Amino acid sequence: MACLVTVLLCADTLLWWRTTRMIEREIATCRMALQTAGWTTTVERTSSGGWPFGAWVTLSSPRLRHEQTVAAPFDAGWSGTTLRAGGSWLDLMRTDLPVFLSGRNAARFLSLTAQATVLSQDLHLRFSKDQNTTFKAPSAELALTTQGLDQSASLTEVSGRLLAVPHAAYGATRLGFELSARSLHSPALPSLQLSARDIRFIAALTSSTRKDTASFFSLEGYDRLLLQTATFSFGDANRLSFSGALDLPAATGHLTLTLLNWHEAVEQLLKTVPIRTALPPDLQIILERTLHNQSPVIVRNNQSVSLDIPVVNGHFPMPLETLLQNIPTQKIDVSHSRE
Fold first, then answer.
1. What is the pTM of this model?
2. Counting Cβ atoms within 10 Å, is residue 155 exposed (0-12), middle (13-18) or buried (19+)?
3. Distances in whole angstroms, Cα of residue 273 to Cα of each of 58, 201, 233, 298, 321
């Protein structure tokens, strides 16, 4: 028995040594690719661990930095507490490499037209050879500032997937993003008396003919933004969703908004003074009449309202009042209303 244990420990040690060397080579290759792309990488200390139940390489205080250039007109940076590449033997049996960013992580992006900040805690990543990266974190904080937008939000139970294909063919997906979260909190929501949950976002950026000359972070390298879905729930059964497409870099196209179980949502919104005063009087009358005449049980049977929203140069050219007045009556399901 002692001989068997010794043989197993020796085999485990050899496997650990080979695995950690392989991970170190992958890290070195990744750092070299980043440096070639104009990024500066720094690490305070590198160590190996995990034996005898796994294998990993730990980087202490990793940093990434990109300074603005003519070819890549943006500043960006990322800093973390600890990066651990690898895991238990069970984790390493899969083809993708697990990476764990313990503690607080911060990423920043700054260009001439936008500024974004992302903060996360205990972020789990998995890098696969098919250019897919999955991620998961207990929480994240986002902030985005553009010429017409200045918003921040915090998310809980975040997970998703990122697809990056820098040299994708024209019209194919060059950058794809999928995000799910349990809840969303934003300074804009308390004023509307709303709390968002079960968030889901799926979008893709297709490659343009200028992908080889434009930066990966520039809209010039993309032809279209395809928003498959952007949804969240509020109240007991209400769900708001967006979908649509925009031509880039002009950011011109359309979005479609759909509100499921709209009866309860409208009832809640009509109780909110800022929203009620923004509604056209005739629409207020229609909504209030429908609310009072419909059965509370029947109206929650998946009724919905849809609204088409034009987008021109990244802005909504029509004010809220005009958009609401243009909602076709047939798009509001009132088939169960009673006179």
1. 0.83
2. buried
3. 54, 29, 21, 27, 15
Helix ranges (H only) for the chain are: 2-36, 89-92, 188-191, 262-270, 273-278, 281-293, 320-325
How far is the C-alpha of 175 from the C-alpha of 166, rounded, in Å?
Answer: 8
Residue 209 in tokens: 């003919």
**Helix, strand, coil share (%) of the chain residues, nearest 5:** 25, 45, 30
Q: Is 137 within 8 Å of 80 (Cβ atoms)?
A: no
Domain ranges for the chain: 2-261, 262-339
Where does the pLDDT of residue 182 fall: very low under 50, low under 70, confident under 90, or very high at 90 and above?
very high
Distance CA 209, CA 44 (A): 41
Q: Please name the residue that has the structure tokens 């603005």.
A: 68
What gap in Å lies between CA 294 and CA 303, rounded to an integer?
A: 12
Q: 226: which 2 tokens?
A: 């395809």
pLDDT digits (tens, 9 = 90+) for 80-135: 999 999 999 999 998 889 999 999 999 999 988 889 999 999 999 999 888 899 99
The distance from CA 177 to its chain's CA centroid, rounded to whole angstroms, is: 6
Residue 300 vs residues 181, 212, 293, 304, 339: alpha-carbon distances, Å: 25, 51, 14, 10, 19
CA distance 332 to 330: 5
Residue 76 identity (one-letter amino acid) = A
3-state SS class at 171? coil
Comparing CA positions, the residue from 272, 268, 220, 269 lying closest to residue 247 is 220
